[in-house]
Design goal:
This protein is α/β, with parallel strands linked by helices. Helices cover 36% and strands 10% of the residues. The chain contains nine helices and five strands, in the order H-H-H-E-H-E-E-E-E-H-H-H-H-H. The protein has a five-stranded mixed sheet. The longest helix has 15 residues. The chain is globular, with a radius of gyration of 20 Å.
Amino acid sequence: MSYIRQCPDLLPEGQVLNLSKSSYNNYKNLLSKQFNINKYSSSPAFKDGHAFLYTDDKDLQTPLKDAINNWNKAFGSNIFELGNVQDETLKVELVTKDNNDWDGMFSNNSILVNKNNFYNQKYNKQINQINGAKVNVNDLIDGKNAKSKEQNEFNNASNSPLDNKYWTGVIMHEMAHAMGLGHTPYANDIVFAESSEEQEQSNLPLKYTWSTLRANNEKNCYDDQ
């Protein structure tokens, strides 16, 4: 626990990442609870330390490749690889459901992407406008100018899902679940969730519950949780 308390909340660092294999086995339940680690895969997502992702949706190829490259760069090793229909351990696909109140979902070793939102031109324009927005302080003082600039940025934003990094992030988020990483309330985490009640974690043990996002992972915040 002294090692855990040296880490930012829900973010393993330092000594926690340098324990022996036997220590991880002995303290598996404690570490899982302290860092929201759970089993999400219905079958092993990794074979000999590698996960093989496959999609037959041509429009998912670019964000999937980018997601794989981003995770591998973070690890400094090719943990994730593009697979085929024969060797896939994770399937990535566009699907439709009864509601559109979601963008990505991890279910039974499948990474599901909301097809309706993915191809919704207005939705993608909003995403691109938000991701690319650069507001000058002087524009904020002049309300009319700020509103005009906002409208121009929206008008000039792309409506293509392949022109933004958002869908890459959605896939990366679901890949994190394949690794066993649960949600956190921190907006700077790829696995953030606005509420601990979101679907994937509603029935899984968590370090604590939350209903609002936080800005950054904090140290020394164990007493109030």
